[in-house]
Hints:
The complex is a heterodimer. By secondary structure, chain A is of the alpha/beta class.
Amino acid sequence: MTKGIYTILENRALTPDVYLMRLAGDTSALTNPGQFINIALDGFYLRRPISVCDYNDREITIIYKVVGRGTEKMKSMTEGQTLDVLCGLGNGFDTAKCGDKPVVVGGGVGVPPMYGLAKALIAQGKEVTAILGFNTASELFYKEEFEALGCKVIVTTVDGSEGTKGFVTNALPEIEYTDYSACGPEPMLKALYNATDKKGQLSFEERMGCGFGACMGCSCKTIYGNKRICKEGPVLVSDEILWEK
Amino acid sequence: MKDLKVNLSGWELDNPIIPASGTFGFGYEFAELYDINILGSFSFKGTTKDPRFGNPTPRIAECNMGMINSVGLQNPGVEKVISEELPKMRKVFNKKVVANVSGFSVDEYVYTCEKIDKEPDVGIIEVNISCPNVHNGGMAFGTSCENAAAVTKAVKAVTTKPVYIKLSPNVTDIVSIAKACEEAGADGISMINTLLGMRVDLRTKKPVVANKMGGFSGSAILPVALRMVYQVYEAVNIPIIGMGGVSCAEDVIEMMLCGATAVQVGAANLVNPYACRDIIEDLPRVMEKYKIEKLSDIIGGAH
């Protein structure tokens, strides 16, 4: 983990509620797709944990949904403004656990970290399918970007206004895959887990205090004992998950 | 050269800064970030007789200038703390530590404190009778003079190290409880624990944290903590470790002027993992500004 000041390069809407922000700064603490950063905002006590969509040696792309007053403030920020950021948090996805034909599954604002994973898997020569799930066509983002990576992309919408009608699990029978990786709301993760016998890596969300393992605010039980979503997570492997809720 | 040394019951600390229990784990997350040996000491994660997972999640809610937690004393239990956590801690921290102990009965406090007392790495035992996040215990011992005195007396009977009792602010008269602890043999007072609070999620229209209520901490509670330390300082003759909303060197000075001998920093560590390092580095500058040569000279100076 590093703490640093990052400069906003770009902050633009992808949909009415979802924004893309590019930040310039030290990315040396990022080691895996699916890790997150924790952003301090003036006037707010706790930081905002946001997953990394993509990064290179000098900049980070995040995609966030405006859900409360903190992200409302973030969306109003402009190029050149700076943010205090804790970078390189959590374990992220392990590409070594993925087979030759992995499927990456993102639900809503769970789509962004799957982009970084898909990019890494394609770079390793794997044949990647991406299932991107949304409620409705107007919420859709990043389809072209996944296609540009070289993924086969399947969009699902709950109301059927774009792609396959229904949930991400409705798209599973259409494809051949060795394993899955996913990020999205917990009901989606659980539905995926129940819909397939294949192994998976699932990225969980939880309200966090610190984001770096100090406060025990985001603990969960696994078959290997207690884990912190922010430190030993957010990615858990399917074998270890205890569905409690 | 400014003198930052303070003395807690014969234990000399290089400076008064002690990360508060539950915000610093057993030190090693922070040792990856900076050399934690610059600290006066730190208070380790609240330890109980048996392992505890704690409360269901969500356990955290944000507030203006603060936060609510309902972690509920998640810890691996005293046996594992002694056999696994303390040896790991020793590799990154070469000073004595404050051992924070909690329990659900007088017998549990006695059991855990007796074990912890034998650990050479422990400087003082901080007995938490004020956790707002657990039922049938925790805070229940800190809300009546009789219970507070009973725990103090029982723990003192089985320990050799200084015993500091950590008090709850969720009482009508914290002064009488502090006095009851002093009369029962406490070597010092540690105060304040978090204030019981809650938030409601407007989307679900239900409490944000699963346990409904939790402990409110952060900058917002500093004035309450200062007032209580000030009141207790007037009433007791044992040292006070002051805490509650401290986030900068100025807050430390203010807390000491109210009567604290040492100062714990809690929630600030979670927002800025370098908070304690920053405070320690900034203290000499703030002392110079307010013409303080020796920090221990200002203890209780506001009275």
